[in-house]
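Worked problem 6 (solution included).
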Amino acid sequence: MLVCLLLCVAAPQQIMSWAMVLVGALLAYSHWYDTGQAVLLNVAVDVFGVWVAWYLLGRVWRLGSLRTHHAIIKILAAGMAASACTTLAGLTAGFWQNAYLPTVIEALLRQWLGYSAILPACLLLFSPTARQSGERRHPRRHLLRHLHFKRLPWPLVSLAVAVALAVLLGGPSMIAFPIPALLFCAYSYHQQTTAWLTLATTLSLIVSDTLHWGLMPPGQASIWSQISLQMGLQLMVATPLLISSSLAARNDLVHALNQALDHDDLTDALARQAFMRGATEYLQQSPAASYGNGVMMLDIDHFKQLNDNHGHAAGDSVLSEFARVIHAAIRPQDLFGRLGGEEFGIVLPDTACQDCLSIAERLRRCVEEIRLYHDSDEPLRITTSIGVVHDSQMPDATLSTLLSTADQAMYYAKHHGRNQVHSLSSGEMRDLDPVPQR
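Solution. The predicted structure is:
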């Protein structure tokens, strides 16, 4: 926990953090020892181990992302090095009088187990775990999808049963019982959850062993049995941590590939296929949205003329800035996609018809305020024409029909002055013609 605190704080606060570590260690050991010399020796030995772990992880190996097995291996190795240094410092300070080698090994393994179980869980707790930017959220359905009231959390249940059996049956070999359950948790839960379940399992088994409830009956508690137990616990900790980190790295890679496939490189808007897929999900969701769903088509005015006059580099800058402004102005659950060239689509889920028109007008004003400097001191200014349709106006209409209707409305806006929002009336919808070429 102390190493995690030191790794997570910024450099200017590290001196204060080290001071807090020293004060905390002094206060803790002052309750255990009567003499000041013993307190200072224990503090020096423990802080030396903490410094070694901090130096290796913060200065030498640089953890970076914790969502790889390489990071977990570095944490385990740093814990081993810190434990070895703490043990050697304890020998030097004379903590073990006439200590035999097995006693030293057991002390080293006990220290290493503490680092291995606690450090990954704490580091993962404080590391940024922002959700993937490309993931869409259905606010109401998202919660219900994860609250399975009629289902048991089987990985957690299997882990509880495995720990109970290990304690009740007793014997060193029972340490293997929780490992399959922890692997089940590693495949089922996030990396952070797996790390904390592993820590809780380890603490449960250590407490049960201390109270002689199982694992190591009092008559069999030899030093080599304790070493065997410590090694078994270490393997039980390392295995799910390595598996969950490998799965996290794989998930990140899959997400990166999906991001590349589903998003336009230039604008970071959804690609046409991904937009159509997501929009169809919104329109077909059950139960239907209370306020219905709005669909917009947006087109940058005079874009071909801008490309001819200023070049394609300027056109790319305009597209990128246009998409950035739209992204910043819509909600996280709204879908924004590039449907081709300078033409974009937006789906506004669970939004009333009048609100869709207000949002479209706000987007139009945001685009109107864009200023881009490309090849002259005069800024490039752009506008957009927006067509809006609401699914309440066209019950049972398909996505293609809604997009076609919004496109017709946008065409009307372009041919009546541009830089405006238009929504077709009921009469205009009945008289729709095929969309003309622009």
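Discussion: The chain is about 60% helix and 5% strand.
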